Amino acid sequence: MRPRHIPSILQFTKLIWQQFAASWEEAGTKAIVVDGTVGNGHDTLFLAKLVGEKGQVYGFDVQESGLTNAQERLEKADIAERVTLFHAGHETVAENLPDGTAVTGAMYNLGYLPGSDHAVITRAKTTIASLEALLPVLTSNGVVTVHIYTGHEGGTAEGDAIQAWAATLPWKEFRVGRYDFPNKELNKEHLLIIEKL
C-alpha cells in the first residue's frame, strides 16, 4: 500500500500546479501554458481546467492517435476552445506559438504514449531543445514541470541528460527543484520543477 503522507510524483505535480494556478487567480493573470507531451490528453485536460475561461493551452505531440483522443476528451468536457493542439514535436514550440506569446508555465510528461508503440519515445535532444526554446518566453515566476521516467529503453539516458542540463541553469535566473524516491529500485521517476525568477 502506498504511503498516505508522501504524495506520488503525479500527485505532487498536480499539487504544484494547483498552487501555481491559485497565484494566477490572486494576481488576475491570464494563464498561457504549454503541454509539451499531450499523449492521450489527461494532462491537457487538467491544464485546460486550471487556466479557466480566459486562459489558453498549447499542446504538442507527434502521435496523431493521442491527439485525437485528447481532442475527444476536451470536447466531452466542453473546454476544447481553451486548447490548441499541434501535431508536432515539442521542439517546435517556438515556431508554433503565436508571435509575442508569454508563457506562464509548461508541463512535460516524458516517455512513451501508453497503449501505443513503445518505440516512439521522447528523447533528450528534442526535449532539451524544447526547454531551451521555452525558457526565454517563460514569464517571471513561471514554472515548468518535467516528469522523467526511466523504466523504458532510452529513459535513463534521457533523464540523466535533462537533469545534467537543468543543473547548468544559472542560479540568479532560475530555481531547479527535484522530487523523487531514492529508494525506488525499479522504474525510477524524477520530477524536475524549474521556476524562472
From TrEMBL:
<dbReference type="GO" id="GO:0008168">
    <property type="term" value="F:methyltransferase activity"/>
</dbReference>
<dbReference type="GO" id="GO:0032259">
    <property type="term" value="P:methylation"/>
</dbReference>
<keyword id="KW-0808">Transferase</keyword>
<dbReference type="InterPro" id="IPR010719">
    <property type="entry name" value="MnmM_MeTrfase"/>
</dbReference>
<dbReference type="InterPro" id="IPR029063">
    <property type="entry name" value="SAM-dependent_MTases_sf"/>
</dbReference>
<dbReference type="Pfam" id="PF06962">
    <property type="entry name" value="rRNA_methylase"/>
</dbReference>
<protein>
    <submittedName>
        <fullName>Putative rRNA methylase</fullName>
    </submittedName>
</protein>
<keyword id="KW-0489">Methyltransferase</keyword>
